[in-house]
């Protein structure tokens, strides 16, 4: 829904920008510019469909064309609003309308439009594979002494079906994961797009990942293969069986509403995992009670749950205290502006209050990984693909803090 609202705003802003362009240049020039954008969009959609003729490809090509359109017109729309306010002010103070728009403002708006287009191009050509390691120190007095310094490498949303089998960039991400030498490796869902065969070209890389305390994964909404509407229920079940088989071959244990104890230095971390738990249209099959069943009272618990909505709605107020939840799912919409960890914005935040980075609620902590792969929109603008290195630190103070 957020994507559709964003696209609608982009289309409407273009109408206002066209009016501004007519006034700042001439009706003929404005018409030619918009006609050129339309022809370029049609050519892009046509070229995209020549490679793969499908509704999905067409929808993706149209969405990208609209994004470029928004980058070109939104700065002009903002310039138009400022210019109209100036015109109203001059009308109120002098009794006459200005004869022409402010030239400096118009040129600045055009430069912003060109910068926006260049940013999207960079996100397509480079941003989607500019992998970054994000460090997160999880500090709590509840961290047992034996677990102090334990390092968890979190990866999420690989969407392996979006990569060509001979992609030359994704192997670098696996090298970065291995180079972190984490004690644990956890994968918080959406390794697939729509088919378990997405994993096959990358099995050697997944198998080569090593962590002394093990490798674990949970199921994300895409992993159910329900977005391929050509599959029958029996075929989807077969897809799930294949997914679990491939995970076992790669050395990952899938935590389907289950937990495992991780013992280190005489202390125990209970690593729990649930199936996807989301709100419509995403499935809610995670069973937190089942995943935590049998864990001793006051144990230190780390939960893998693909969708951060689960933390927001359930985990943050669940009777059993879950110390740290690791999620993914949002991708930060693959479109965001980030100045620092606490100063970032994305349209996705109006759908997901917890969408990227660390959060705390009721003393429980959440980290949302923005994902390694990409889906639908083949770019990352302002938010790079992420590998998270989480270090547990025992802090002073009461265990509830």
Automatic annotation (TrEMBL):
Superkingdom of source: Bacteria
Gene3D superfamilies: 3.60.21.10
Single GO BP term: lipid A biosynthetic process
Statement: the UniProt record of this protein carries the keyword Transit peptide: no
GO annotation, cellular component aspect: membrane
Pfam families attached to this UniProt entry: Metallophos
Residue span(s) of domain Calcineurin-like phosphoesterase: 150-332
Keywords recorded for this protein, A-Z: Hydrolase, Membrane, Metal-binding, Transmembrane, Transmembrane helix
InterPro entries linked to this entry: Calcineurin-like_PHP (IPR004843), Metallo-depent_PP-like (IPR029052), Metallophosphoesterase_sf (IPR051158)
CDD domains xref list: MPP_YkuE_C (cd07385)
Transmembrane regions listed in the UniProt entry: 33-49, 61-82, 102-125
GO-annotated molecular function: metal ion binding; UDP-2,3-diacylglucosamine hydrolase activity
Name of the featured protein: Metallophosphoesterase
Gene source species: Candidatus Merdimorpha stercoravium
């Amino acid at each position: 829904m957020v994507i559709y609202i964003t696209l609608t705003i982009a289309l409407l802003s273009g109408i206002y920008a066209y009016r501004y362009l007519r006034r700042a240049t001439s009706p003929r020039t404005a018409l030619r510019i918009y006609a050129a954008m339309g022809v370029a969009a049609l050519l892009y959609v046509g070229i995209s469909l020549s490679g793969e003729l499908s509704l999905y490809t067409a929808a993706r090509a149209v969405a990208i064309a609209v994004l470029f359109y928004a980058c070109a017109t939104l700065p002009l729309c903002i310039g138009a609003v400022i210019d109209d306010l100036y015109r109203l002010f001059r009308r109120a103070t002098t009794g006459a309308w200005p004869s022409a728009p402010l030239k400096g403002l118009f040129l600045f708006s055009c430069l912003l439009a060109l910068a926006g287009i260049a940013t999207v191009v960079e996100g397509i050509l480079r941003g989607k594979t500019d992998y970054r390691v994000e460090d997160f120190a999880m500090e709590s007095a509840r961290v047992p002494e034996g677990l102090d310094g334990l390092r968890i490498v979190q990866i999420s949303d690989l969407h392996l079906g979006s990569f060509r089998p001979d992609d030359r960039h994704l192997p670098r991400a696996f090298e970065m994961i291995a180079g972190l030498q984490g004690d644990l490796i956890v994968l918080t869902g959406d390794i697939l797009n729509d088919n378990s065969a997405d994993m096959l070209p990358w099995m050697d890389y997944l198998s080569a990942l090593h962590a002394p305390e093990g490798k674990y994964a949970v199921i994300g909404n895409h992993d159910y293969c329900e977005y391929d509407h050509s599959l029958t229920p029996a075929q989807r079940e077969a897809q799930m069986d294949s997914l679990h088989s491939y995970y076992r071959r790669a050395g990952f244990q899938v935590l389907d509403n289950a937990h495992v104890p991780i013992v280190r230095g005489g202390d125990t971390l209970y690593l729990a995992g649930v199936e996807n738990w989301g709100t419509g249209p995403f499935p809610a099959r995670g069973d937190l009670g089942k995943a935590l069943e049998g864990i001793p009272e006051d144990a230190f618990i780390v939960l893998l749950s693909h969708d951060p909505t689960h933390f927001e709605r359930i985990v943050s107020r669940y009777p059993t205290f879950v110390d740290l939840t690791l999620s993914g799912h949002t991708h930060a919409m693959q479109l965001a502006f980030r100045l620092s960890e606490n100063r970032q914005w994305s349209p996705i935040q109006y759908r997901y209050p917890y969408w990227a980075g660390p959060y705390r609620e009721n003393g429980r902590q959440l980290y949302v990984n923005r994902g390694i792969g990409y889906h639908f929109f083949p770019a990352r603008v302002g938010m790079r693909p992420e590998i998270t290195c989480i270090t547990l630190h025992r802090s002073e103070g009461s265990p509830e803090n």
